[in-house]
Automatic annotation (TrEMBL):
InterPro entries: AcrB_DN_DC_subdom (IPR027463), Acrflvin-R (IPR001036). GO terms for cellular component: plasma membrane. The keyword Plastid does not apply. This is Efflux RND transporter permease subunit. It holds the Pfam family ACR_tran. The keyword Transport does not apply. Keywords: Membrane, Transmembrane, Transmembrane helix. Gene3D superfamilies: Multidrug efflux transporter AcrB pore domain, Multidrug efflux transporter AcrB pore domain like, Multidrug efflux transporter AcrB TolC docking domain, DN and DC subdomains, Multidrug efflux transporter AcrB transmembrane domain. Signal peptide: none annotated. The chain crosses the membrane at residues 12-30, 331-350, 357-377, 383-404, 436-458, 464-486, 522-541, 841-860, 867-887, 893-912, 951-973, 979-1005. GO terms for molecular function: xenobiotic transmembrane transporter activity.
């Protein structure tokens, strides 16, 4: 094939040129995003039920929804949590479930059970989780001093949101912190009682004044007119002018009995920028959009906003495109330094400027053509796929160096230029194909990991497969063609000299070779001990998910653990901001219930999430301690958590499951176990290292009890008392004004007085027209109450979070503890998920090793020789562990990727060396003067000399290309540094040992007799 293609260099060149042009066109159409558009198999149902207790939400709403959703196809887990005024149900599906259909199915079932839910309850929100839902940036909208915040909310909702949605690539715009205008009616109780009237008469007058005549029309000859009541109210003055009939027969304007005015609706949550109330607009990207084009457009739009709306300040925060820019920058750095160092190393070893130029052409062409595979597999340019390309680039350079070195060697042996190109490629073709297949045998099985990990590895595996496959085509077709064209005019006979630099290196190698093979058994014992000792270094290494990144931002999650209002929550956060003022560059906070449509977390009035951006790591460390001191001193009851601000990776991999949770259900009552029984039981729990789960957390509450005897005595109905209580303490909506899609509620104004005072002062009319105070019919008491009601598929449960180092060591004790109290006990948590993933990963790695072994066995036609290649891998891993330990790094996702890169290069070297030894043995054995043992020694020695140059060149180019990252700073360098340590450690120590270990193992393990089968 190579001979056929080389005979037509112009056709080959034009074909590659056409492919590159087509690839460039495709590259411009590929979406650029932060992460692959992965469907997370979860759906969240959110319920807002104002003024409802956790028990009421569980009994009246969540239980009904759970029963309606239990038959969903593919449903694995269902967890619900009812809190004050809010409730959530999280549905987790099997990963093979088509989430588009599941989302439709959930909405259909919600629609069916809507009639079974309490009257007036807003339809539950159904939120589907997707990686595209992670916002790419947040736009802060801050009203200036003296500007009406409600008007700014309307500006954000009606103007800013629509203008941002019109930007190319924007899929959704979400807002938090909006304020809405309502009309409040504040009755004048003294005036109402003086006229012998009740609040109900005011309410009835307002409802009558806002009534409609739906579908009523009159006929006037040949015309028909639809009627509209002209008495409908629009403004507070219209309401105040409504007539109210007094018992005496007098007509009284409503304005004499109540004060009516526009006010802001009571907020369940706020957004703060610094210590100022603001709105935040989160911008979400379309899956097919290019982030590097979207962000400049968004920034340009913000500059226009600043000009068009001077009454508002705008800020862009939490720009997630920094991660993508870091990945692209790392790829560019790898290409730049890889090319430069490859040029330098090749020039140093080969002394010919044309060889580096050939690699300089092949490297970007391979990368560009790889994007065609992206297009056909519908893969976007994202951090995962870019990391796959970065992995493949190192191996791509290796293939190019090996082919060029072999062609040069064939030419130096006396072959013509054409024959040298053909023979040089054919000789290493099978070995290079095997090395690529062995690398893919490690990556491709990872696609079958369950969950998000497998979905992420799909993009990476396709990227690695693409660039390696293309690199093979380039190395076998384009490189020899370029070599032939570049050297066709060179009539000079190659002298075959290695050059002074490589001659010195070769001399050093020879010294080491003589030393090792002079004491073969001792050397083999040394290598045999080196492998377990090196792998044992893993016990001294810390392990984590992602590497520690020097972030200048942090988050503070606070649960005040007190039944405070959203206003008090806001005031506390502002006080905290003011106490820390000047120590941060930017700060924002989501206080209380968040209004985001896509927010799938826990909504609670008593919780806040604060975000801080600092100027330096020193400021961050100092302020973190100040925050702890401030909260501990002023709010000792508060629960808080301080950590680095999560990026898109953290948000994707974060789990809502606790690490290890012991759950139980009361098998008798099917309800939460009462506090008075639960607390003594918990004191006898089998382990002491535990925390209360959500279903056991307590908060202070007030319990009202109606005095039925007095109600009966005075002829007052229970409904009358309940109606009065809802007017006093609830959000009592009289009616709504609806105009062109805009709804303005008319509500009774809630009193700011303490509830005890209201009970003493509020009057109730009895059947004898006498008035009595509400407090005579209502008793109240304070008591601690469960803060949340939690449930799953099986019903209501309570739980503790076990924090012991070996949480599953007492499983039988947990079950026995529950059985003694008639409780059904089960254990759940991330601990079991991790255990399952580790078992799955071990299985997949075993499959990978088997695949690698089978491929090599087919390549070498031997069952022993593949084991030599496999045994070189621990040497590289040991070298990587040593450098990671010395550098103070950890084992994480990036260092694991570095191990795979390094092992891919080492496998290539070992395969090529064994392939060369096998080929030379066949040549030497044909000579009658050479014995079998001599042929083996000559083949091992000569193969080491031949393969030394490409092994050193591939290792040195890879190491030198990565060294600048160690001394760089920033997010990209922090992410890539563990990868660099793995590669450098493996290639320096692993390659040096493998140079001698492969021939030594070959000598010991491969038969010295069956030379014809070698």
């Amino acid at each position: 094939m190579v001979r056929f293609l080389l005979a037509r260099p112009i056709a080959v060149f034009m074909t590659f040129l056409a492919l590159m042009v087509f690839s460039f066109i495709v590259l411009r159409t590929l979406p650029i995003s932060l992460l692959p558009p992965i469907d997370v198999p979860q759906i969240v149902v959110k319920v807002n039920y104002p003024n409802a207790s956790p028990e009421a939400i569980e009994q009246n709403v969540l239980r009904t929804i759970r029963e309606g959703l239990i038959t969903l196809n593919g449903l694995e887990e269902m967890d619900s949590k009812a809190g004050s005024e809010v409730g959530t149900i999280r549905l987790t599906f099997d990963y093979s479930t088509q989430m588009e259909l599941a989302y439709i199915d959930v909405n259909e079932k919600i629609d069916r059970i809507t009639n079974s839910l309490p009257e007036g309850l807003a339809r539950p929100e159904v939120i589907r989780i997707n990686t595209s839902d992670i916002p790419v940036a947040r736009v802060q909208v801050i009203p200036k001093e003296g500007i009406d915040e409600i008007e700014v909310s309307q500006l954000a909702e009606n103007v800013l949101k629509k203008r941002i949605e019109q930007l190319p690539g924007v899929s959704l715009v979400d807002i938090n912190g909006k304020k809405e205008r309502i009309i409040t009616v504040e009755p004048n109780e003294a005036a109402i009682r003086a006229l012998g009237m009740t609040q109900q008469q005011l309410i009835s007058a307002i409802q009558a004044g806002n009534s409609e005549l739906p579908g009523v029309s009159v006929k006037d000859g040949q015309f028909r007119y639809y009627l509209r009541l002209a008495t409908r109210v629009d403004t507070p003055s219209d309401i105040e002018s409504l007539p109210v009939l007094a018992p005496s027969g007098a007509i009284v304007p409503l304005g004499r009995l109540a004060k009516v005015s526009y006010q802001a609706q009571e907020m369940l949550g706020y957004h703060l920028f610094g210590d100022r109330e603001a709105l935040v607009i989160t911008v979400h990207k379309q899956a097919a959009a290019k982030m590097n084009e979207l962000m400049p457009e968004l920034k340009k739009a913000l500059e226009l906003f600043k000009t068009d709306y001077p009454q508002v300040d705008f800020e862009l925060t939490q720009d997630q495109s920094n991660l993508l820019n870091a990945a692209i920058s790392n790829l560019q750095t790898s290409l730049l330094f890889g090319g430069l160092f490859a040029f330098g190393v090749l020039f140093l070893f080969m002394k010919d400027y044309r060889l580096p130029i050939i690699i300089g052409v092949s490297l970007p062409s391979s990368l560009l053509i790889s994007f065609l595979v992206f297009y056909f597999f519908d893969i976007s340019i994202n951090i995962i796929s870019l990391s796959g390309l970065a992995l493949g680039i190192g191996m791509l350079i290796d293939n190019s160096i090996i082919v060029l070195d072999n062609i040069t060697r064939k030419r130096e042996s006396g072959l013509s230029l054409f024959e040298a190109c053909v023979a040089g490629v054919n000789e290493v073709m099978s070995a290079l194909v095997s090395s690529v297949l062995t690398t893919l045998s490690v990556f491709v099985p990872l696609v079958f990991l369950s969950g998000i990990s497998g979905a992420l590895f799909f993009d990476q595996a396709v990227a690695v497969a693409a660039i390696l496959s293309v690199s093979l085509a380039v190395a076998f077709i384009l490189l020899p063609m370029l070599y032939f064209l570049f050297f066709s005019k060179n009539k000079r006979k190659e002298d075959g000299s290695e050059g002074a630099f490589f001659s010195r290196i070769l001399a050093l190698y020879e010294k080491g070779y003589r030393l090792v093979f002079g004491k073969r058994k001792l050397a083999m014992v040394f290598f045999s001990l080196l492998i377990p000792l090196g792998l044992g270094l893993s016990y001294f290494l810390d392990s984590e998910g992602l590497p520690q990144i020097e972030k200048l931002d942090a988050t503070l999650e606070i649960d005040w653990n007190e039944p405070i209002s959203a206003v008090e929550n806001r005031d506390r956060v502002i006080a905290l901001m003011n106490a820390m003022n000047g120590r941060y560059e930017k700060a924002e906070a989501d206080v209380g219930v968040r209004q985001f449509l896509l927010f799938d977390g826990e909504n609670s009035i008593q919780q806040s999430l604060l975000y801080f951006l600092f100027n330096s790591l020193e400021d961050k460390a100092m302020m973190t301690q100040d925050l702890i001191d401030f909260l501990s001193k002023n709010y000792p009851e508060a629960n808080y958590k301080i950590g680095d601000a999560p990026n898109a990776f953290d948000q994707l991999f974060s789990s809502t499951l606790p690490y290890y949770e012991v759950r139980w259900k009361d098998l008798t009552s099917k309800e939460p176990v009462p506090e008075e029984k639960m607390d003594p039981w918990l004191s006898q729990f089998p382990v002491s290292d535990w925390e209360r789960g959500p279903g056991l957390q307590k908060e202070a509450s007030v319990v009202f009890t109606l005095r039925a005897d007095r109600l009966a005595t005075y002829g007052i109905s229970v409904d009358q008392v309940q109606e009065q209580l809802s007017r006093l303490f609830g959000t009592y909506t009289i009616t709504d004004i609806r105009r062109f899609g805009e709804i303005t509620p008319i509500r009774l104004k809630e009193s700011e007085a303490r509830f005890e005072d209201l009970l003493r002062t509020t009057q109730l009319a009895a059947s004898d027209s006498a008035f009595y105070t509400l407090g005579e019919f209502v008793d109240y008491r304070y008591e601690d109450h469960y803060k949340y009601v939690t449930a799953d598929k099986g019903g209501i449960y309570q739980s503790v979070l076990v924090t012991a180092s070996e949480p599953d060591a007492h499983n039988t004790d947990y079950i026995r503890w529950g059985a003694e109290r008639n409780l059904g006990v089960s254990m759940v948590g991330q601990y079991f998920k991790d255990k399952e993933n580790i078992q799955q990963l071990i299985g997949i790695l075993l499959v990978s090793v088997l695949l690698l072994y089978f491929i090599l066995a087919a390549q070498f036609e031997s069952f022993i020789q593949p084991l030599i290649v496999v045994l070189t891998l621990p040497l590289g891993i040991a070298g990587a562990f040593l450098v990671i330990l010395v550098a103070g790094a950890s084992l994480n996702v990036m260092s694991a990727i570095g191990l795979v890169v390094m092992l891919g290069i080492m496998v290539n070297d070992a395969i090529l060396k064994i392939d060369t030894i096998n080929r030379l043995r066949k040549e030497y054995v044909e000579s009658p003067e050479v014995s079998a043992k001599e042929a083996l020694e000559m083949a091992i020695h000569r193969a080491g000399q031949i393969r030394l140059k490409p092994i050193l060149m591939t290792s040195i180019t890879t190491i030198l290309a990565l060294i600048p990252i160690i001394f760089s700073s920033g997010l990209g360098a922090d992410l890539q540094r563990p990868l660099v340590y793995s590669v450098i450690g493996g290639l320096t120590i692993g390659t040096l040992t493998a140079l001698y270990f492969v021939p030594l193992a070959y000598w010991f393990f491969v038969s010295k007799k069956k030379l014809t089968e070698a």
